[in-house]
Amino acid sequence: MMGRFPLPLNVQLINGGELARLLTEFMYHDPEGQSVRVPAGFETDFASVRPLRNIAVGLLALSLLVGWFLPMLGAAVGTAGYGALALYASVVGYGHAAATIHDRLYATGELTRYWSDRVFYHALRSSGVARWRAWLMYAGVRIGGHWRYNKQ
Fold first, then answer.
1. Can you give the pTM of this predicted structure?
2. Which helix (DSSP H) or strand (DSSP E) does residue 115 occupy?
3. Are 124 and 137 in contact (CB under 8 A)?
4. What range defines the domain where residue 71 resides?
5. Counted domains in the chain
6. Residue 5 lies in a domain
7. Dihedral pair phi/psi, residue 80, rounded to 5°
8. Does the residue 101 lie in any domain?
9. Is residue 39 part of a domain?
């Protein structure tokens, strides 16, 4: 059973496109019974994957520098950079609706982090994101989400 989004996601991009502000209320009904309302005016960065891109670019730049002196190490660092870039490309631009719900849950702390992440996964699947990609995004918030949960 899939959850549902009864209202469209209606946003205005702000801050050079780095953030989006909801112009109207948004909501999601999770198949496990949770309903999440996001008020108009809430700001989201959608899926917070920009740091992954920055890591990839940093590793690739570092590989060039290290490669001059230690070619094998430079190649290893470059490989890690390309891996991070491939991971970034796999998730960027997907699941804006689910990410908005997740950002709201993380901002308010109305659900535990575990349940917020579960709702995120279900919302990703409800919005048509492929199972493998939804799992990858879910794994990302489980691994690194503690830095942002309920920090205001």
1. 0.81
2. helix 113-126
3. yes
4. 50-90
5. 2
6. no
7. -60, -40
8. yes
9. yes
